[in-house]
Amino acid sequence: MGVIERRERERKAVRKKILDAARELFVAEGYDAVTMRRIAETIEYSPTAIYFHFKDKETLIRELCREDSVSLAKAFHVIAKEPDPLERLKKIATAYVDFGIKHPNSYRLMFMTQSKLNQDDLVHMGHGKLEEDGYAFLVATMSEAISKKLLREDLQDPDLVAQAFWAAGHGVVALHLAKHGDPWVDWRPLQDTATLITEAMINGLQRKDFQP
Amino acid sequence: MGVIERRERERKAVRKKILDAARELFVAEGYDAVTMRRIAETIEYSPTAIYFHFKDKETLIRELCREDSVSLAKAFHVIAKEPDPLERLKKIATAYVDFGIKHPNSYRLMFMTQSKLNQDDLVHMGHGKLEEDGYAFLVATMSEAISKKLLREDLQDPDLVAQAFWAAGHGVVALHLAKHGDPWVDWRPLQDTATLITEAMINGLQRKDFQP
DNA sequence: CTCATAAACTTAACACCGTTAAATAACTTT
DNA sequence: AAAGTTATTTAACGGTGTTAAGTTTATGAG
């Protein structure tokens, strides 16, 4: 039946219409500031129409977030080809920071808000969320760096080192997204800070003659 | 008149009563999850009574936050006596992380949410908020480290280095507060990560023979 | 062709939130 | 005792996400 396909296509079109309108508003004003009513208004639907296509506001936002995070996944996919683990680390950090700047709302949602760990999530686990893949990629890179003896001899725990490295990258982005407006700090360009912290970390982690 | 003093004392007592109840609820459930109505309920007042003592919910929360942040200020005050700048940096990082763990809600409010930069804040500026003092302390320490030639020769901008170092510390805390519940990361003890990132940063920043 | 059925939507409404306006009780001052 | 200030309550407003119930519209069956 061609009619059932047409319906599905129309439903998808409306879905996209909602997502596009929501995206534009969210990007401009942030997730919390935009109401369901305003999204409905811009597409000239009633507020409740959205709930036919999306379970609730969070689901809608997660969908946008998912779309955004594809760019990070793609970047990581390219970076995976880099043979040198330390060089790969630098590129990972760069891509990660870029993602945070390009998609601040999604970044905030993914990395700056505590995800409610309800039972549903625990059930649906193992599906390979993008954050999970990204972290696994970082750990794998760190593992390779360790096995190739590129890091200090006392650093044998890939998870520990990966978490420290992640924290460094996250710190730059998170601080920027949250506090860059504050005038009591003479902020340096984000790229400069990101480059410095990445270099300093790799430098500090790979050094051989470490003194406590 | 002794009566006016008594009134003031009673008013302060009610104020404290509200703050104590609010603190307990907030600590247990987070700032957003606790409503004004519930705070009022626990002290057996009507919800609107709170508004006689505090302008609004945010003011109340800021007051709690201010109280919390005193502990960080005190810690920094003690640390200021440490003569070695690099050692001071380590202690600053430790105190900062400790603060984040001890007062997660206040930390989130102070460092993980964008402060609305309205005109009022710009007017009331220069009052020396605690965050401001803390950052100034960090920059001063970094400045001293630079002038004592403890850092790499190419690092001459105290603000840049301070921001990178701050980002490192912030990254550890922020990641912990936001994502520690996520089960797809095999989290290492926060203290281990904090120690590693601090050492790695100082190590990476102070090294002389830096290769790009 | 008519009628039932399902999908896509709208209208009305609920429960909750922070907050304000108006009424009220309690206590001082005159 | 009257007037007035202070602290509190009751009632209500405007806003939010969301659900329930009704309404249109197009399709499929007899």
UniProtKB/TrEMBL annotation, chains A, B:
Molecular function GO labels: DNA-binding transcription factor activity; transcription cis-regulatory region binding
UniProt cross-references to SUPFAM superfamilies, sorted A to Z: Homeodomain-like, Tetracyclin repressor-like, C-terminal domain
InterPro entries the record matches: Homeodomain-like_sf, HTH-type_TetR-like_transc_reg, HTH_TetR, MT1864/Rv1816-like_C, Tet_transcr_reg_TetR-rel_C_sf
DNA-binding region: 35-54
Keywords from the UniProt entry: DNA-binding, Transcription, Transcription regulation
A Pfam family assignment: TetR_C_33
Record-given protein name: TetR family transcriptional regulator
Domain HTH tetR-type: from-to ranges: 12-72
Origin superkingdom: Bacteria
Transcription regulation as UniProt keyword: yes
